[in-house]
Design brief:
It is a single chain. By secondary structure, the chain is mainly alpha-helical. The chain has a single domain, classed as Four Helix Bundle (Hemerythrin (Met), subunit A). The protein contains five helices and no strands. It has helices at about 5-15, 20-45, 45-65, 70-95, 100-130. The chain starts with 5 loop residues before the first helix and ends with a helix.
Length: about 130
């Protein structure tokens, strides 16, 4: 059994102990990092790595889709579901077609969503801190 590095243990602890909003922010940041790496690999003509990074980003988006609470989330959850579905379709098409246009499009969408979630976090912190 492999021993996890202190950094990996720290990352795991951070993810497990953060608020739900902070967890979503971390997931968006990681998916954007993966898409950035995918674009770099595409430009370097490393198509295997291009594909692997897209697949990892898709797994994060699939997770975000799976945890949506459609009852409590109402119209916002429905809209996020549509965005995640679009993102998965677009990334899959970019992966199979070996083009980065869709990756750039989805990255742009995720950056916008990240900014929105960061604003929510700030609002919650201000509300708690009075």
């Amino acid at each position: 059994m492999a021993i996890a590095s202190p950094y990996e243990q720290y990352k795991t602890t951070t993810i497990l102990t953060c608020s739900p909003v902070e967890r979503v922010i971390l997931l968006y940041k990681r998916s954007i990092e993966l898409l950035d790496k995918s674009i770099e690999e595409f430009d370097a003509e490393n198509f295997l790595e291009f594909s692997e990074n897209i697949k990892k980003a898709c797994k994060i988006i699939e997770y975000l889709l799976s945890v949506l609470d459609m009852e409590k989330g109402g119209e916002i959850a429905k809209n996020l579901s549509d965005i995640y579905d679009f993102s998965l379709f677009t990334l899959t098409a970019s992966n199979t077609g070996k083009n980065k246009d869709g990756v750039l499009r989805v990255r742009h969408i995720l950056v916008g969503l990240l900014e929105a979630w960061e604003a929510i976090r700030e609002y919650e912190q201000n509300r708690v801190n009075g």
